[in-house]
Amino acid sequence: IIFESGRFRNGFLFKTLSFTGITIDGPKPTLEELEKFDELPENVDPDLLPTDKKLTSDSVFTAGDIVEVCEGELIHMTGTIISISGDKVTIVPNHADLKNAGALDFPSRELRKIFKDGDHVRVIHGKYEGETGLVVRVDDNVAVIVADTTYSEMKVRPRDMQLCTEMNSGVDSQGMYQIGDVVEVDQQTIGYIVRIERESVRILTQHGKTQSVRNNAIARKLKCGQALDSQQNFVRQKNIVNVLDSGTQ
After folding, report:
1. What is the value of pTM for the model shown?
2. Whole-angstrom Cα distance, residue 242 to residue 244?
3. Per-residue pLDDT tens for 34-75?
4. Any idea of the CA torsion for 25, 29, 33, 34, to the nearest 10 degrees?
5. Which region holds residue 113: left if phi is over 0, alpha if psi is between -120 and 50, else beta?
6. Residue 149, Cβ neighbours under 10 Å: how many?
7. Is the pLDDT of residue 89 over 80?
8. What's the number of CA atoms in the CB half-sphere (13 Å) around residue 11?
9. Calpha distance 137→133 (Å, rounded)
């Protein structure tokens, strides 16, 4: 919003000032003020926020990636990467008229990865790093993936994923835990592992909430026994049940 030559957003005035015109020592914001500045901007998906990791050509692209030229004279041309050297990416064009042109070199900034519905991919950067799944939709430089292990939807930028054939095993790197294990975190918390992350697991607790727990913070893995349902029938792990009385019925 522009008002009296000032630019406002969410009640805040945005101004450009020199360093000599501001003071950073002394002000002590209240908790309420800190919470306001900690809020995400409108229309920003937290799953797509950038990480602190600096991405280079070698970490974004790899041989075998399908890419599209997004700048220059050959814009919209697609091809397959065959090699990467520093910021130079060499691709073989997929266009029939350019098949005889041989390999072409491009700066990495002029290329972007492309995927199509049905591609099987691995997430290589970001919140879901290490997850694998099937691409079900690609919209506005955001791909929607259904995870192999949890069947949940993930939103990932195309640059943060690669084509792959193997599936996530759902087992942590040390082989101690896997999706579906029931674990005890402490005397007050037990949970069901619903996702394996790099150095932690995400569990669904007995309170119906999910939380991330580091592997070394788990007290022990519990053996799954059996229980009785409302009609006094035995219920065991992997049985299919109907919820009769719950907030999630």
Report:
1. 0.53
2. 6
3. 555 555 445 555 555 555 555 555 568 888 899 999 888 888
4. 70
5. beta
6. 19
7. yes
8. 3
9. 12
